[in-house]
Amino acid sequence: MMMRRGVTKAVRSVLGHAGSRGFSTGAVATEQATARIFRANSGRVSEAWIRFPVIGVRNFSTVTLDAKTEKKAETGSVGGAAGGGRDKEIVSYWGVSPAKVTKEDGGEWRWSCFRPWETYKSNLSIDLKKHHAPVTFLDKVAYWTVKSLRYPTDLFFQRRYGCRAMMLETVAAVPGMVGGMLLHCKSLRQFEHSGGWIKVLLEEAENERMHLMTFMEVAKPRWYERALVFTVQGVFFNAYFMAYVISPKLAHRVVGYLEEEAIHSYTEFLKELDKGNIENVPAPAIAIDYWQLPQDATLRDVVMVVRADEAHHRDVNHFASDIHYQGHELKKAPAPLGYH
Fold first, then answer.
1. Most buried pick, 12, 165, 182, 245, via CB within 10 A?
2. Superkingdom of this entry's organism (predicted)?
3. What domains, with CATH codes, occur in the chain?
């Protein structure tokens, strides 16, 4: 008798809490709950299972949202450009969503991949004709390696400079990341500062990546070009990694010569634009904001600032190689932070 009373109380307790709000791994609107009941019968203990409906129970793994929050989540948007989309807003328990960013004029900032304080006006007065004459054996190795890579590139792209720029930027963004990563690890191992060179090289990689994001708005890669990126980037990443580990001065010299070739390629790009062989379309919105270009900027303006960026990368990498050639580590010379 006492066992039956205990069972009855247990069932009433479960039913009493059927409309409560709990926490588990899923959301349940209408479900059946199961109670396991033990009963005594003639000195033996047996068990039975009973099912009953549970209505109105909502369970969440981490957080329970009210109707207002859910409605807001359905109307929000996320992406490379903030605002204006129909994608649902990402709602997180951890509260790490970035604060709203605005332009200087108070307008909404639409890019999540970079911020207003990361934009700049490119220095177009930089000397584009500078060249490091190869003197040492490693210089000549770097120079002729880069020259030998130019021939298959010219053969593949010919005068499709939009596609050429887009594809080559997928490779150009690799050296800065590799160099910055290796200097970062070295700084951790030796418990010392890098002299700012980690940041310089990572900024170079990010700048080259922004070139790619820009030219993707101008030329769309074909399927076989995407496949080519996988192959070339994989080979180049590992080759440059090994070169930097063995001889940083060789690695930086290679990049310096690559940037010299990039300047030449963008100069040819400008010639085709001036001849009318390539349409001088309006500049992509991302380029206007990133380089602080006027609203009526064109593709020619974009190529001009990208070419100037490549000239700055040329200077930085030849300078880094010279530091190593003179028997010093990069940390001994102040890094050219903010050199655009």
1. 165
2. Eukaryota
3. 2-14+23-60 (no CATH), 66-118 (no CATH), 137-332 (1.20.1260.140)
